[in-house]
């Protein structure tokens, strides 16, 4: 009866590696990765941790490449080769670049970091290559030793001498076989099968003394009973993967021992096979459950990828929207960390998809804020120019003209977008101070006909009249009253500058409260026809052009005024183009009227 057991679930590197703890190297800094690699390189089991070394190396160069890009460095990053290369590359390793002398140290910090890590890695790589070469050499040597043992065993079987002479030699051959270490994997099965064949031939063909044979069977039975006990204990072990690994070792040891007495052969084998079947079944069930869990994790991670990809493609226009989306992405990243691994085949692929979507979002965010910063700096220059223009006008005594100019500057200030927060308040205070200085002086120098405080008093009295007005049943009467109030308001002159916004808001509230329907009607006289509407629009554009040209005139005397002058010129050019278009439309209407 054959005693070789083929596990229900084969041992593969993919299966076992799924159970190894995964370190998040991508979250570590260059210094942390270099320090971790240095500790690994001096550990006692460093030669068995080559996969960990390669993972650290890969994470180090990905981090180095990213930080170089963020720092604006154009130096290329070249990763050293794998520490698992064939021993044949030993000569190439020995010729790897060595750290340069202190006199040749680069001024680029990334070059120094890379040089230090490369020196560590090359030293480990060289040691690993030598270790692999020695290991392979030992296995080849073991192969030669075991082939020699088989040759001796074959010769012993063929001699068929007296048992008293052959049995001690057979025992010595068995001890020699067990003492020899592992051989190359590709030679193991054929070598072991050949050895077992000659062992069985020895027991079957050589007529040994029954007492010695029974003693040998007894020793083999005792050894195999211990293997059965060990396998049965493994069946109770909670860690199924560890139990399965240890079971494989028991199978290898089982094969090293010869047969037992015929009456015990089937029972001892069935006992060992039964314990093996329990472990195999639990192992298979465990990985079936793992497959289901991996599939669920993959589905959950795929959904998160789709969410991030949708956000990364979303059209975002404001800083507030970017902040909201960033919080949403960060929450999704937290959810991602709470989900377990997918299968090894899918885990890296889904992670790269998720990472790519996150990177796309944050790259777009970085571009937005870069452009936003440029726009704010441009706005800053425009507002500085407005401050200088206001400061140039603050001592003017041309009260009417300067008042119009400063009011126009204030309108332009409101049209300009945001500036850097640190400078916003100081800049506004500077602009407001220049305006206040002029208007305060203007109010002090006011002539009787420009009695600003008298005008303020008159407007307050008019607001009281509006609030006290009793609405008539006739809408036309109310409309006439509202128009009268409006005309009187317009006829009253300027009020003190610091009071103008407050009194204007009070008037607007009073009119809207008393005449809500009338207040919503468009102001001014509506054009009678399309031609009149175009003419009004044409005259308004001409007035705008005159205002823009005047602005360029007093901006020219100010520093940092280039952005504003450029803006005014763009408005002038656009308005002139619109004038041409309006003129063509008006002429077309004139021609149509003449034909009628």
Describe the structure.
The chain is mainly alpha-helical and 596 residues long. 76% of the residues lie in helices and 0% in strands. It is elongated. The model is unreliable at 1-21 and 85-105 (pLDDT under 50).
In short:
The protein is elongated and about 140 Å long.
Give a topology summary:
Elements: H1 13-17, H2 30-41, H3 50-71, H4 90-94, H5 109-159, H6 163-179, H7 185-205, H8 210-234, H9 240-256, H10 262-313, H11 319-338, H12 344-393, H13 399-415, H14 421-444, H15 452-468, H16 475-491, H17 500-514, H18 516-519, H19 530-555, H20 562-595
Helix pairs in contact: 2-3, 2-5, 3-5, 5-6, 5-7, 8-9, 8-10, 9-10, 10-11, 10-12, 11-12, 12-13, 12-14, 15-17, 19-20
Keywords:
mainly alpha; single chain; DUF349 domain-containing protein; DUF349; 20 helices; 596 residues; coiled coil; disordered N terminus
Most strands sheet: none
Distance between the termini: 118 Å
Rg, nearest Å: 46 Å
The helix tally amounts to 20
Q: Identify low-pLDDT runs.
A: 1-21, 85-105
By secondary-structure content and strand pairing, the structural class works out as mainly alpha
- The count of strands amounts to 0
| Fraction of residues in β-strands | under 5%
Let me know the average pLDDT. Answer: 78
Name the shape in a single word: elongated
The SSE order reads HHHHHHHHHHHHHHHHHHHH
Binned, the helix content reads over 70%
